[in-house]
Design goal:
hydrolase activity; 3 domains; globular; Alkaline Phosphatase, subunit A; glycoprotein; ten-stranded mixed β-sheet; single chain; Sulfatase_N; Arylsulfatase, C-terminal domain; alpha+beta
């Protein structure tokens, strides 16, 4: 408390006075502020009115009088399953119990680089250009960092800081991404856990989660005394596996957690899809995987939740820092993952598939205006999270946002009060090489409340359709069942439309689907 809190309180008094002055000036000159009309001519528009960006997305032109824009701190982890929150008690207590849990949150492109590019831009890969981790249409080389949530919030008056894992292959460029006041990405030994290097620093030994947290704390401590709100994106490596000299393995836990949770049973063991007995109905090569080794699954699972224990500490320490600086009540905290992960379901270990355990991610939000102890079962995506941050910051996005703000749904304790899309695009990219005529997609599909559907764009007859109402574990592919023919045709139509969408066209309401026949 003491001097730091006094500075924060003084800052808030000054901000309140400034808001009143600006509101008065806005009222005097509102009629004279020009904006572009539909034909490109300059027309007058009220300064305080909602502006519609070139995206067609409504955004507030200025901060509404009396509303203090919150700080935003995002914890992004790597490859975490939604059910692994069970082993993060601090995160559950400080965020879930004090905020809102999105129980059906999704990563619509469940692979590291495309997911992170989507979060930074609020766009699907067909619009931001990042379809894979590497190759012709993947990695940092395919990403344009000139217009991101960082540049938009910085332009809106935020202090901005990034620390941790950036887009795959960023380290080959070494460039300083625009929009970040402090930019501290990992640039070497990224997947080693106990050795790492941040941009502008020498390689060092230690534990990477602790190092990311220490830099996150320093960013918050630097930004908090200022008069501007701040945005911090802390991208943690856990529970991603190791890759040392091309040799891959499970994540390395911090020494203090090396034997934690001994004997804990992996939740995938209790899923009927685990080591699925009959995969003959799975499309393409998905039905050709061998049987799963229980010991391998157990080892990987334990390493994952042990590595997440240090991230759990990082969340708790960040909350404590915000509280100490008097900023906690003015900060929206978000916890999520770039994608989910399969631990033996359908005989698979990994990501980059359109199955439930890979698409599903944890998503927790706590902060001013967020309902406490609430749940929301909409299909919220990482792209919606981007739109939400832009909304909270009253920022003007420089791109067409494919996601929608979650803020309007915070008016009810659960379920979300606002209208929401009924169909969500999901997809995975191909590892395209130069001269490859392929489309760049390996799978494209949609999710509705009831159905999961997808197909291979190179071979459209290779497809899947799961009716989760009667088959929640996605065991019975009904794509060729005559009873589901009309359902399949309509879901394929929606996939084609959304596969070419941009902006508001990515979030329509299509209406009811046909019922299965018989």
């Amino acid at each position: 408390m003491g001097a730091a809190v006094a500075r924060v309180r003084a800052r808030r008094r000054d901000v309140a006075v400034l808001v009143v002055v600006l509101a008065t000036l806005a009222a005097l000159v509102a009629w004279a502020v020009p904006t572009a009309g539909p034909d490109g001519r300059q027309v007058a528009a009220p300064l305080g009115a909602q502006a519609v960006a070139a995206t067609g997305t409504p955004v507030a032109a200025e901060t509404a009088p009396g509303r203090r824009r919150p700080n935003v701190v995002v914890f992004l982890v790597d490859d975490m399953r939604a059910d692994e929150l069970r082993w993060m008690p601090q995160t559950r207590r400080l965020l879930a119990e004090r905020g809102l849990t999105y129980r059906q949150a999704l990563s619509p492109h469940p692979l590291c680089c495309p997911a992170r590019a989507g979060l930074l831009t609020g766009q699907y890969a067909q619009n931001n250009g990042v379809q894979h981790n590497k190759g012709l249409r993947g990695g940092y080389q395919s990403f344009d960092p000139r217009s991101t949530v960082a540049t938009w919030l910085k332009r809106a008056g935020y202090r901005t800081g990034f620390v941790g894992k950036h887009l795959n292959r960023y380290e080959r460029s070494g460039r300083l991404d625009p929009g970040w006041d402090r930019f501290l990405p990992l640039v070497g030994h990224t997947y080693e856990f106990v050795r790492f290097r941040f941009r502008g620093e020498a390689a060092r030994n230690g534990y990477v989660t602790r190092a990311i947290q220490a830099r996150t704390r320093r960013l918050v401590e630097e930004f908090a005394p200022g008069r501007r709100p701040f945005f911090v994106l802390a991208d943690h490596l856990a529970p991603h596996g190791t890759n040392i000299g091309g040799v891959t393995g499970p994540p390395v836990p911090e020494q203090r957690y090396a034997t934690a949770y001994a004997g804990t049973r992996p939740p995938s063991f209790d899923d009927p899809a685990y080591d699925e007995a009959d995969t003959s109905d799975k499309p393409g090569g998905l039905g050709q995987w061998g049987r799963v080794d229980d010991d391998e699954t157990r080892r990987e699972f334990l390493a994952r939740i042990r590595s997440l224990a240090s991230v759990d500490d990082a969340v708790g320490q960040t909350v404590a820092t915000l509280r100490r600086l008097g900023e906690l009540d003015d900060t929206v905290l978000v916890f999520t993952s770039d994608n989910g992960y399969a631990l033996g379901e359908h005989r698979y270990h990994g990501k980059n598939l359109l199955s439930d355990e890979v698409l599903r991610v944890p998503l927790l939000v706590r902060g001013p205006g967020v309902p406490v102890g609430a749940v929301d079962d909409r299909h919220a995506t990482l792209l919606d999270l981007t739109a939400t941050i832009v909304d909270l910051a009253d920022a003007r996005p420089g791109l067409r946002l494919d996601g929608a703000s979650l803020v309007p749904g915070w008016g009810a304790r659960s379920g979300g009060a606002s209208a929401w899309r009924d169909t969500t695009l999901v997809q995975t990219g191909e590892l395209a090489q130069r001269g490859d005529p392929a489309s760049g997609w390996s799978w494209r599909g949609v999710l509705t409340e009831r159905y999961s559907f997808g197909y291979d764009p190179q071979r459209p007859s290779v497809r899947f359709l799961y009716d989760r109402l009667v088959d929640p574990h996605e065991l019975d592919n009904r794509a060729e069942h005559p009873a589901y023919a009309a359902v399949r045709v309509e879901l394929a139509r929606r996939t084609r439309l959304l596969g070419a969408c941009a902006g508001a066209d990515c979030r329509p309401t299509f209406g009811p689907l046909p019922e299965p026949v018989g």
